[in-house]
UniProtKB/TrEMBL annotation:
Lineage, highest ranks first: Eukaryota, Metazoa, Chordata, Cephalochordata, Leptocardii
Pfam family, one: DSPc
Function per UniProt: Dual specificity phosphatase able to dephosphorylate phosphotyrosine, phosphoserine and phosphothreonine residues, with a preference for phosphotyrosine as a substrate.
GO molecular function, one term: protein serine/threonine phosphatase activity
The protein's name: Dual specificity protein phosphatase
Source species of the chain: Branchiostoma floridae
Superkingdom per UniProt: Eukaryota
Active site: 113
Keyword list, A-Z: Hydrolase, Protein phosphatase
Amino acid sequence: VQELRRIITGPFDLVLMPSRSHDEVFPRIYIGEGDIAKKVARLQELGITHVVNAAHNIGVFTGPHFYRDTAIQYLGVEAVDHDGFDMMPYFIQTADFIEDALRDSTAKVLVHCLEGFSRSATLVIAYLMLKQGMMVQEAVKTVRDRREVCPNDGFLKQLCILNDKLLSSGSEQKQTV
């Protein structure tokens, strides 16, 4: 966890808040704050076709009904940004949703929470590990290089556990973690 924290905070041990409402952190995958998810016209301008709300019913009250007049597909994750919250049950479900979306070469996915800082970043990092074969350090660096993020220590521990499981199970069994 300390190594991941150093990747996030850099040499000056600074936690920076996101400077933009959304950022493309991997091709066609965006992390953003809750407000951008409520701006349907802006999402359509960006070409967003899928939304993952990592604060579903907890601070950001959108849902499939919110996007009913659009073609945007929705996944809600009721995650609490707390060290003790178990995010692991959502890793595979969210990674599968993102992967299914990106099978369409024109699709773009927004993963958001309230601030686009901890929960959403954790889910995207897990996707990069599960579906792109990245180690946890590479996945954290990939996201952090493109957006100011800082998953809480509990989420970082869970990503380390996922990393260990992926290493011990081998690439053929990634889906069963």
